[in-house]
Design brief:
heterodimer; A: 604 residues; mainly alpha; B: alpha+beta; four-stranded antiparallel beta sheet; 8 strands; 43% strand
Chain lengths: 604, 171
């Protein structure tokens, strides 16, 4: 099958060579195109919630509907389509959406929903889908016992439509089930006229011919039955049933020699075929009718042995289906896509499933297997979600711890004090540098060493004033010293100015770093406070609770789904076992009857 | 032998009408569909919370990859480095390439980055024109601000040059 229809939906806006205009939308498509609907839907829904879809917003909901359908959520898809498909320009999408929804509902056996979805179709659906829609309507009519409604829809089918064959076959089966053999055969014979049928239609024609043969037999027309059976292909899925039927038809005409050939052919086939099993009993029966009791006895004994062996295998299969771990036994783990619309049937390959070939092919059984598979996957997603939540809880706790540490540390006090000192010094320097040289006090720009000399000179000058004439000769030197030091200051002025400006720049950088540090601490404190008050831990807790609740629901649904698969499989196997017991009993009775007859000829 | 009963049995088998399903099937269908929807909503909420907590916007860097038709280049792998450190080395399967060619976008990397300038280097390997081994790089320097940074690595066919072109777009 070709996965095309949803491409015609909103994805039509993204053709090869074009890129999407919203990255989250593109990511959803990336998962979607790989058949990973769970992650595609998650991405799309998250983007919808966060309003990240830009120009794709309108189409996204429709895409979600399509993906829901592919993920086996046709009820959610129906709700979305009901809301979104009335938008302008959606005529083509609308018809396709309702059509596929109807098809899934039909496969589920939900006739009412299928009918409701079909009722939404408007003219314009592509021809092949339109033909199938007519057939679905007709088939629903038949299932509801309304042949008139079925006929109304079937009459609109094109004569070359492959669905014509399916309709006549189902109508024939319906009539046969009601015991209307003649009408049934007329319907089955419609399939003979199919022009250039596909492999699927050839198989359907074989099925119809075989069914017609049995219907003629039931109607007491063995010659006509034989005529139908011989038309069945010798290499096809219905060959066994046709060979068996042909034998019975010949037998009904008393021609047991002709009956023997197909039955003996069947005898050599696997007993998994119910026809082959029947033929084990039919061959000796034919010998009996042909007056060959010895061969008949031998045949019945062989049949009895084979039935016992097959019965034992069937009992093993029943035990397997009752007790085995179905998940691994059915090989569902190997299913790497969860597409409900276009994936091939799930075909379990383990030994015990060989008795259930025709059951496994049925829609309802396939649906049950898919539900079972999906529930297992949901269980795995929930386990992963639980692990992710543990990571989030750890991360959240770690973030809170770090923020609290930062917020509660003393470093902000140290930084504040440092910042104040720096600010003070910067102000001093700025004031100092703002003056001209002439306005500066003596020694204002002095280095530490020069400043010390200025202090000593001032101290010495004061002492000289106090001591008076005793040190007059020394006092006279003071102006000289002052002049020399002023001279030194003046000489050093450009270098000092340059030095102090450099110091100012460095101090300003340091003050800035200190300020940033303080801002970071303030932010961390704020964050720690916010984190304490935030809903994140509550959100984690809420999600944990939801995961646990979902686990409970999944476990319960899984148990129900598993029980249903087991029940249906075991019921079918038990039906086959009963059939085997019946034919085994018949073979034993026949053996006893033949022994009895032989003993009559022995003098007592 | 009861031929008529036998024939009826075969007709029933042929019409596939003998399997009996429990009446609970429809209810179970509805329950399973509801479970799926609830699980999806749960996963969506978890996904959003994860992103908010593990990759907050002020440090988030996300790198995406998109692909054009791919006539001149068949992608095998992409190696992504941030400031000289390899953060992702991704090999693509044929199914993923198909998804990319049909318009899908791959989220190649998601991580955290400090504010400031950073060098992002992507090296693409695969098969180029005429099926030859092909290896090309794309470099971009991005300024990380307090807003989430999203980059798209784009591989585009240049019909004029008959070569693939590699570029980086900032969203």
């Amino acid at each position: 099958m070709v996965l095309t229809w949803l491409l015609l939906l909103p994805v039509a806006s993204v053709r090869a060579g074009e890129t999407v205009q919203s990255l989250p939308y593109g990511v959803a498509l990336f998962h979607y195109f790989q058949g990973d609907y769970f992650n595609a839907l998650t991405e799309l829904m998250a983007a919808q919630q966060r309003g990240e879809l830009d120009v794709h917003t309108e189409n996204a909901e429709l895409l979600r509907g399509g993906m829901s359908l592919s993920f086996g959520m046709d009820r959610e898809a129906e709700r979305i389509f009901e809301r979104s498909l009335d938008l302008e320009g959606q005529e083509r999408n609308r018809n396709q959406a309702w059509f596929y929804l109807a098809r899934i509902a039909w496969q589920r056996g939900d006739l009412e929903r299928a009918q409701r979805a079909l009722a939404n179709l408007t003219p314009g659906l592509e021809r092949p889908l339109a033909q199938e829609a007519l057939y679905l309507n007709a088939a629903i009519g038949l299932s509801q016992g309304d042949r008139a409604q079925a006929a109304r829809f079937a009459a609109q089918l094109e004569s070359t439509s492959p669905w014509v064959g399916y309709y006549h076959y189902n109508l024939g089966a319906d009539m046969a089930a009601a015991g209307d053999w003649r009408s049934a055969t007329a319907e089955f014979s419609h399939l003979e006229t199919l022009q250039e049928p596909s492999a699927e239609l050839r198989a359907l024609r074989d099925k119809a011919l075989t069914a017609a043969g049995y219907a003629y037999l039931s109607a007491g027309e063995p010659a006509l039955a034989r005529a139908e059976f011989v038309k069945v292909r010798l290499q096809g899925p219905l060959t066994d049933q046709a060979l068996l039927g042909y034998g019975w038809a010949a037998g009904e005409q008393g021609d047991y020699l002709s009956a023997l050939a197909p039955w003996q052919t069947l005898n050599e086939r696997s007993l998994l075929s119910a026809s082959a099993r029947e033929s084990l009993l039919a061959v000796p029966y034919a010998y009996e009718q042909l007056g060959r009791p010895g061969d008949a006895l031998q045949g019945y004994q062989l049949a009895a042995q084979s039935y016992r062996r097959e019965l034992s295998q069937l009992e093993q299969s029943i035990s397997d289906f009752t007790t085995l771990d179905l998940w691994s036994a059915l090989g569902l783990l190997e299913q790497d896509r969860d597409d409900w619309l276009f994936n091939a049937d799930i075909r379990p390959s383990f030994g015990s499933s060989k008795h259930l070939v025709h059951l496994i092919g049925q829609n309802r059984f396939q649906i049950a297997l898919r539900e079972y598979r999906d529930l297992h996957r949901i269980q795995r997603h929930l386990t992963t979600a639980q692990q992710r939540l543990q990571t989030l809880r750890y991360t959240s706790a770690e973030q809170q711890r770090v923020w609290h540490e930062v917020a509660q540390s003393q470093s902000d006090d140290d930084l504040t004090a440092r910042g104040e000192k720096l600010a003070q010094r910067i102000n001093q320097l700025r004031l100092l540098l703002a003056n001209d040289e002439a306005d500066l006090a003596p020694g204002a720009l002095a280095t530490a060493q020069q400043a010390e000399l200025w202090t000593r000179l001032q101290r010495a000058s004061k002492s000289a004033e106090l001591l008076g004439p005793e040190v007059a000769h020394r006092s006279r030197l003071m102006p000289l010293y002052r002049g020399l030091m002023a001279w030194d200051d003046s000489e050093a002025y450009p270098g000092r100015i340059w030095q102090l400006r450099g110091e100012l720049v460095e101090l300003e950088v340091m003050a800035d770093v200190t300020k940033q540090g303080l801002q970071k601490i303030a932010k961390a404190s704020e964050l720690a406070k916010t984190r304490e008050e935030s809903k994140e831990d509550q959100r984690i807790f809420g999600l944990e609770q939801r995961v646990l609740a979902q686990f409970g629901r999944v476990d319960s649904a899984l148990a129900d789904a598993e029980s249903e698969v087991r029940h249906v499989a075991v019921t079918e196997l038990e039906r086959q076992a009963k059939q085997l017991q019946r034919v085994a009993g018949q073979s034993q009775l026949a053996i006893a009857r033949l022994y009895d007859r032989a003993s009559d000829q022995v003098p007592r | 032998m009861k031929l008529k009963a036998l024939c009826c049995g075969w007709l029933l088998i042929l019409s596939g009408a003998q399997v009996s399903w429990s009446g609970e099937s429809q209810n179970l269908d509805a329950e399973i569909q509801d479970i799926k929807q609830q699980t999806l909503e749960l996963n969506r909420d978890l996904f959003i919370l994860e992103e908010e907590l593990l990759f907050p916007a002020n440090s988030q860097l996300a790198v995406f990859l998109s692909l054009d038709i791919g006539e001149y280049f068949a992608l095998d792998a992409v190696k992504l480095s941030v400031d000289g450190e390899v953060v992702s080395h991704y090999l693509y399967t044929s199914r993923q390439l198909d998804a990319l060619q049909r318009g899908g976008v791959h989220r190649l990397y998601m991580g955290n980055l400090k504010s400031g300038d950073h060098e992002i280097v992507a090296v693409f390997t695969g098969r180029g024109p005429q099926g030859r081994d092909y290896r090309r790089g794309a470099t971009v320097t991005v300024e990380k601000t307090s807003e989430a940074k999203h980059l798209e690595l784009k591989i585009v066919d240049s019909t004029a040059l008959q070569q693939p072109e590699f570029s980086v777009a900032q969203w």
